[in-house]
Target: Very short patch repair endonuclease
Amino acid sequence: MPSKVAPSKYKPGTRSYTMSRIRGKETSIERLVRSYLFARGLRFRKNDKRYPGHPDVVLPKWRAMVFVNGCFWHMHEGCAKFSIPKSNVEFWTTKLTRNRQRDQEQGSKLRAMGWRVFTVWECQLDATHRDKTLDELYQAIIDPDCQDESIKAPIQTKE
Ligand SMILES: [Zn+2]
Model:
């Protein structure tokens, strides 16, 4: 039976400390996306609690939403930044698979409500890729006919 509690081999506080650090990182990529879109003249709501998944950016005028996903927490498949940790494999597999499943369910609900749902990945926002990624996102948002929600900027693939 897979354990649902945090693995006990870590010293108390260590894992949550690491998790908060990783979450903090995610927050800064959200901020990067928001300040870029704002600078290009878009106005939006943040982390709107009325919608499944609390989208990071909600643009009612464009019927568009943006999720900014950390590659680890949202299991970015094929990405160099994502792999299941070597220890406590079962714990992490269960937890991260659940995250991904939730993302997919939330996305379907939002699309059914008539939203275009864009996802931008952490690795698409590194120093090398961010300009292209952000421009592509902006262009997709302001094109109401754009139903293709995948941002094509390259991801860092595994060797
Ligand atoms: Zn990635």
In short: The chain has a mean pLDDT of 83. The domain at 30-141 is CATH 3.40.960.10 (Endonuclease; Chain A). Strands lie at 45-46, 57-59, 64-69, 116-121.
